[in-house]
Amino acid sequence: MRGVSFTDSDNGTAVGWNGTILRTTDGGSNWTQQTSGTTENLTGVSFTDSDNGTAVGERGSILRTTDGGTTWTSQSSGTTENLTGVSFTDTNSGTIVGTDESSKVDIILRTTDGGTTWTSQTSGTDIRLSDVSFTDTDNGTVVGYEGRILRTTDGGTTWTIIGFTGLITLSGVSFTDVNNGTVVGWNYSFGGRGLILRTTNGGKDWTEQTSGTTTGLGGVSFTDTDNGTAVGGGGTILRTTTGGVIPVELTSFTASTSKGRVTLNWTTATETNNHMFEIQRSIGDGQFTTIGYVEGHGTTTEIQSYQYIDNVSDIQATSLSYRLKQIDYDGSFEYSEVVEVTNPAPTDFAL
To answer: Using CA atoms, how far apart are residues 146 and 130, in angstroms rounded to an integer?
Structure first.
């Protein structure tokens, strides 16, 4: 699959080779094939609501629907070159990108009348363009080959390069507002992998996320900052409800006692923005107090093991309870489950 567009967490459309159009109304659990009326490869799609959508593809193909894809009508693009991405902010205002394969010059087309007429724009770059995402009529982002990311704040009249260079191809982009966006593609380094990059400051900084696939990704669509779908080769469909962020996954947390000491051990499978663990103890009254800290490993998909030793030789208690407060770099936190130990400290007797 090469392009995807969701209008809410349930309703979405994906497009791909040989005129393939798939539709879901249950968040991607099930997909129904629609009749596109074309055998051209479709590479981009954009819906503004559950009924009104536009798909684009090779040889200047533009398809338009007003009934959720039950029927598709061909529109004239004014070009026979390959169109690769499309973004509409309402039923009238939209932008298409592509590449003139003979001259290798980018194509940007703009409409304000629902695709009846298209006006040519230019990005000022000779890099092949793959996809486009507008959050309103003025603010838009385009991605392309060699890691290029372009940004406009005036509806496409001018474009500024804000992206990368290197062995990556960016194939899809989706912004939910001027700050929060995700791009997908293919990273040729280290044998290749599906690439997902995330920004929360309008493209000034990008963080790579874990796609979990070696397949190149072709399109992405977010309906809000948390809920998104990416599609790629071989029918790959990825879904996130956390903005693509992998939370800190605590796989074990144990406590053992020996000679007046309590040893806490815990393991994580994945971590994202993990600043630290705050160790908290309760002496049986239900009130937890902080007794120490252990630094986290930031963002990692490798298994990490931690240990903290608590000297309780001076505490006279029949039981102790412990929990972890995992703290992210932004200050957000979560508590672990509570573990308990019985008679952790030796009791002194006097004759």
So the answer is: 11
Phi/psi of residue 313, nearest 5 degrees:
-65, -25
Place of tokens 């948390």: 226
Q: What is the pLDDT of residues 208-241, one digit of tens each?
A: 888 878 889 999 999 999 999 999 988 899 999 8
**Whole-angstrom distance between the N-terminal and C-terminal Cα of the chain?**
81
Cα separation, 110 vs 93, in Å, equals 8
- In the chain, the domains with their CATH numbers are 3-240 (2.130.10.10), 249-342 (2.60.40.10)
In sign, the C-alpha dihedral spanning 126, 132, 133, 138 is: positive
Contact 341, 303 (CB under 8 A): no
| Residue 233 in tokens | 């080769």
Q: Are 96 and 78 in contact (CB under 8 A)?
A: no
Q: What's at 1, amino acid-wise?
A: M
The closest of 183, 172, 177, 90 to 140, measured between CA atoms, is: 177
Residue whose token pair is 């000679």: 259
- Phi first, then psi, for residue 113 (nearest 5°) are -130, 35
Beta-bridge partner residues of 97? 85, 108
pLDDT, tens digit, 9 for 90 and up, residues 81-116: 999 999 999 999 999 999 887 776 789 999 999 999
Cα separation, 64 vs 48, whole angstroms: 12
State the pTM of this model: 0.77
